[in-house]
Q: What sequence folds into this?
């Protein structure tokens, strides 16, 4: 057994002991090679019953609203418990600590990883729109949730751009201005389609990865989802906006500016993550950077 494997097993055992004191037996463990944190799929026996779990260890303290965020685990735990209590399809929480969360494994499909029909893709978009509309209508939770505004996001992006030494990013962030904001709601923070799992009927089976949750304008969520879709499946972005407007009863205003804002914010976050050692290629190409600048221009920034 390598030292890395031994260290991981010690960490896993400690988390299970904290979540299920004296009651858990680890049957199987396998790493999940996704995302920027450590993830393991665990098959565990607790009180004689099998549980299929996912353990996450946070490897950096960067979120979209701050550079030194040490409340991710607490925030994710509070977020999934609050959302689950309101009936949203989120994984059940089994435990958390200063740097980890332990939740049930969600079984489902990712929309952009499969060869789905146009009807199935439309169903998936409508289902996510319904979930986001429900989320944004929920009571806001108490706890470690920042009240994020566009002014806060710009200040954070400006610091990240300066630290990166990337003159093109510095110039892009300098063009941003605070936007008119609606009353804040509970937002997921990163509802891109890699954080959504669908069942066989293309209904949302699980909205996962709540470390970026905040109290903010609902358009932080919608614009982030649209930014992601316009890179991977642009034909679905407008469908999501229309479906969200129908589900929420609130058409999404000024979306072009919000998407431009989300794009530059993602550029700044990507730069900060690379500086922290994450192997990200986002916004390292002429195409990505030119697209961000084009969106700024079209949005009037």
A:
């Amino acid at each position: 057994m390598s030292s890395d494997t031994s260290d991981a097993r010690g960490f896993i055992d400690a988390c299970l002991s904290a979540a299920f004191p004296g009651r858990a037996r680890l049957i199987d463990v396998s790493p999940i090679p996704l995302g920027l944190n450590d993830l393991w799929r665990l098959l565990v026996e607790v009180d004689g019953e099998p549980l299929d779990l996912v353990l996450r260890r946070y490897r950096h303290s960067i979120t979209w609203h701050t550079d030194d965020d040490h409340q991710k685990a607490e925030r994710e735990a509070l977020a999934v418990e609050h959302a689950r209590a309101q009936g949203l399809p989120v994984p059940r929480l089994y435990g958390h600590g200063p740097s980890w969360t332990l939740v049930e494994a969600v079984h489902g499909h990712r929309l952009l990883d499969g060869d789905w029909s146009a009807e199935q893709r439309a169903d998936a978009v409508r289902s996510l729109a319904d979930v986001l509309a429900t989320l944004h209508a929920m009571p806001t939770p108490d706890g470690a949730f920042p009240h994020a505004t566009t002014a806060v996001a710009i200040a954070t992006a400006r610091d990240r751009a300066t630290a990166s030494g990337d003159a093109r990013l510095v110039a892009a962030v300098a063009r941003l201005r605070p936007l008119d904001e609606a009353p804040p709601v509970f937002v997921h923070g990163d509802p891109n389609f890699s954080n959504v799992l669908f069942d066989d009927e293309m209904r949302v089976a699980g909205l996962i990865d709540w470390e970026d949750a905040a109290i903010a304008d609902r358009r932080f969520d919608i614009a982030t989802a649209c930014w992601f879709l316009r890179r991977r499946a642009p034909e679905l972005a407008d469908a999501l906006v229309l479906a969200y407007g129908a589900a929420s009863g609130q058409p999404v205003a000024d979306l072009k500016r919000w998407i431009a804002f989300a794009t530059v914010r993602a550029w700044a976050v990507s730069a900060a993550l690379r500086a922290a050692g994450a192997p990200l290629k986002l916004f390292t190409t002429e195409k990505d950077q030119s697209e961000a600048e084009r969106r700024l221009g079209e949005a009037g920034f």
User: Anything to note?
Assistant: The first strand starts at residue 24 and ends at 31. Strands lie at 24-31, 38-46, 49-57, 93-97, 100-104, 185-187, 196-198, 204-207, 214-216. The chain has a mean pLDDT of 94.
